[in-house]
Amino acid sequence: RMELSCPMGGSAAAPPGPGPPASAGAGLMDGEDYESLPSGAALGTHMVAGAVAGIMEHTVMYPVDSVKTRMQSLQPDPKAQYRSVYEALKKMVLTEGLWRPLRGINVTMLGAGPAHAMYFACYEKMKKSLSDIFQQGGNSHLANGIAGSVATLLHDAVMNPAEVVKQRLQMFNSPYTSVLGCARAVQRTEGFGAFYRSYTTQLTMNVPFQAIHFITYELLQEHLNPRREYNPRSHIVAGAVAGAVAAAATTPLDVCKTLLNTQENTALSSLNIRGHLSGMANAFSTVYQLGGVPGFFKGVQARVIYQMPSTAIAWSVYEFFKYFLTKHTLEKRT
């Protein structure tokens, strides 16, 4: 999720759009640069770049995401108690097989492409429109935050069902063996609503996550890359720092989301909760009863370790594709 999650949010590099004018260099002609995309190419460019960035973001660090899901378990099986990310990965591979940390990666790829395509297209469009309103010709942090938050609504609507299936497949001793089998079983036993049980929690987490993420990213870009040129190093550093800050700050909500997605049987039955847990307030109460305040920070190490490279990858891949596709379009014109 850059988070891009991409965005990763969920959820690429310096978000394009308004900002100090970049110099026309690196093969871009007529004063045009990759920050001001040629008319007609912008939406498609953002969507293709966003889709590739989203898939890369979610898959490259996927094994660590599997570890995070397990470390957020409120009452883990004794065989699935881990002290560190490295120990968890080693244990999973040795006891459950080489491919176990990758289980569920296919449904993540399936959701991440369209989710991030819509996410970045919406972000770019809104950021430009709102910046013109709030700070004509400038880079408005308020516009960045609002644009990132609204784009998250679209992203999460696509990713939430994929997250439910993915996290159930990631759990220790998961009864599901395939994506399709898991999706069918959840739909049959819990109804379609199960795929969106954590949607409000996901949004409550991702809206501040993306707002912190984008504002931190843009703030760092102003210092590291004030001319807003294509600068991979600045995109990677700013993306990694922004992802780490946002991930740490929103871990309590991520723990609640995991509980709602997985409906962890052992934890719920220990509190005599029958049926299915729903709603953010219930999730918060359950986490607190079972783990106290520290319970809200379960898996924080894995979450930060996952998000730092993920957001760095997402931003750098996104900016590279945006630059490359824009350059190609401009060259075709001449």
Automatic annotation (TrEMBL):
<keyword id="KW-0408">Iron</keyword>
<comment type="function">
    <text>Mitochondrial iron transporter that specifically mediates iron uptake in developing erythroid cells, thereby playing an essential role in heme biosynthesis.</text>
</comment>
<keyword id="KW-0999">Mitochondrion inner membrane</keyword>
<feature type="repeat" description="Solcar">
    <location>
        <begin position="230"/>
        <end position="324"/>
    </location>
</feature>
<dbReference type="Pfam" id="PF00153">
    <property type="entry name" value="Mito_carr"/>
</dbReference>
<keyword id="KW-0406">Ion transport</keyword>
<dbReference type="InterPro" id="IPR002067">
    <property type="entry name" value="MCP"/>
</dbReference>
<comment type="similarity">
    <text>Belongs to the mitochondrial carrier (TC 2.A.29) family.</text>
</comment>
<feature type="region of interest" description="Disordered">
    <location>
        <begin position="1"/>
        <end position="30"/>
    </location>
</feature>
<feature type="repeat" description="Solcar">
    <location>
        <begin position="41"/>
        <end position="129"/>
    </location>
</feature>
<keyword id="KW-1133">Transmembrane helix</keyword>
<keyword id="KW-0472">Membrane</keyword>
<dbReference type="GO" id="GO:0048250">
    <property type="term" value="P:iron import into the mitochondrion"/>
</dbReference>
<dbReference type="InterPro" id="IPR018108">
    <property type="entry name" value="MCP_transmembrane"/>
</dbReference>
<dbReference type="GO" id="GO:0005743">
    <property type="term" value="C:mitochondrial inner membrane"/>
</dbReference>
<dbReference type="InterPro" id="IPR023395">
    <property type="entry name" value="MCP_dom_sf"/>
</dbReference>
<protein>
    <recommendedName>
        <fullName>Mitoferrin-1</fullName>
    </recommendedName>
</protein>
<feature type="repeat" description="Solcar">
    <location>
        <begin position="139"/>
        <end position="223"/>
    </location>
</feature>
<dbReference type="GO" id="GO:0015093">
    <property type="term" value="F:ferrous iron transmembrane transporter activity"/>
</dbReference>
<keyword id="KW-0677">Repeat</keyword>
<keyword id="KW-0813">Transport</keyword>
<keyword id="KW-0496">Mitochondrion</keyword>
<keyword id="KW-0410">Iron transport</keyword>
<keyword id="KW-0812">Transmembrane</keyword>
